[in-house]
Amino acid sequence: MADTAAAVGVDPLTLVDMLRVANSPRFERWKEQVRRTGGCAQPIHLSGHCQTVDTRTGEFFEYSTSSEPGGRLRIACGNRRASRCPSCAWTYAGDTYHLIMAGLVGGKGIPDTVAERPRVFATLTAPSFGPVHNRPTSGVCRCGAAHAEDHPALGTAIHPERYDYAGAVLWNNHAGQLWQRFTIYLRREVAARAGLTQAACKEQARVSFGKVAEFQKRGAVHFHAVIRIDGPDGPDTPAPAWATVELLDDAIRAAAARATVPVPSAGRFPARTLRWGTQIDVQPIGALEGQTDVSEQAVGAYVAKYATKAAETTGTLDRRIGELRELDLHPHLPDHTRRLIEACWDLDADYPERLLAHWSHMLGFRGHFSTKTPRYSTTLGALRGARADWRAQQERRERGLDPLDQDDDTTEDTTLVIAHWEYAGQGHTPGESWLAASIARDLKFNRETAREALAAMPAPDDAEAWA
């Protein structure tokens, strides 16, 4: 058994559990459940029953988990973090990609004329809290070494004893407020450059954005945002003639320079004013006004990638830290990251309303990783709803039922659902976890193969065939 486990790459106990699961009478149904979750690493277990009646046709459908493996229905956890559930994070990233792309080129209820609007990809960063190891264009770090691209020292303090760890975690903690103030000033700066009052500007234009937060290796959060100028009613109305990429670029830089968040003194910590760093990047998107710049697809993919990541990219933990002494259980935690976490706990008593210890695993950051304005594009909820509707139609086809009429507004009113569900646990046993990961890999391979095949298809002669 030990030799077989070693050959498979698992420990003997996991192998025994794998054999138990594979030889269970409902193994095929268990695999089907896992496939339906996309190979979720931490599925939610539900027990209960559901009855559905179509009052127009009299069709009756009854479902109970009593016939399922273990008497449970497994559904995807929906966690956006790739470190916790790669499968659900992949779905979340896909939704984020479509959300961002809809705001760039249209689709999902957004007109394709948004591609003609002034649009930029802006990056706002944190200020310096002390010199860190890096790879400058000169090739030589301040420490005098030429670091390799994957060197573990990159992003860590050159002089830890002089690095402003308190300032770094306070900046992370207030970054959401700083972004909010930036958006307020941005609208003011756009109006000023158009020669309008704010009220008059609102009658002619609307500033929309979708943004994502990313942690740099030094442990400081920064933001990437797609920012667009529309007409007064959003994407359905054209932008005014005075709205240009150059105007938007200038307004973003001015707003970033004006936005500040004051932090009062507390205990032994002095008062300070938080502001953006000097490294602000603004790039036009797509071919606009004769320019060829960063593509819509590249922007969408970049935002989607970081929508599934958090502070764990710096080496920190991807879960809350109950007590500071828990860090002793993680001897491989980078020293720079450990100091940032300790700074959160050190500041917690002086700034209790900031919940720094509670958010120490995020190095103090407590904002949303992905946000957008209401009129930027579609919503994640709408995308999830469309996916749920598609799965419901697929289920009806498999059971030989007539498809629901998506254009019929009376469908919901004529379908009666009586359900009772109870939480019955979460996750997999060790053997189930290994098998689920294998299923997830197969699903990913199939998706990538299908995508490559689609990309390799020749363009049709008749464009109407692809409408």
Automatic annotation (TrEMBL):
Residues 389-402 have a biased composition (Basic and acidic residues). Residues 389-409 are annotated as: Disordered. InterPro entries: RepSA, RepSA_streptomyces. NCBIfam families: rep_init_RepSA. This is Replication initiator protein RepSA. It comes from Streptomyces sp. 900116325. The lineage of its organism: Bacteria, Bacillati, Actinomycetota, Actinomycetes, Kitasatosporales. The gene is repSA.
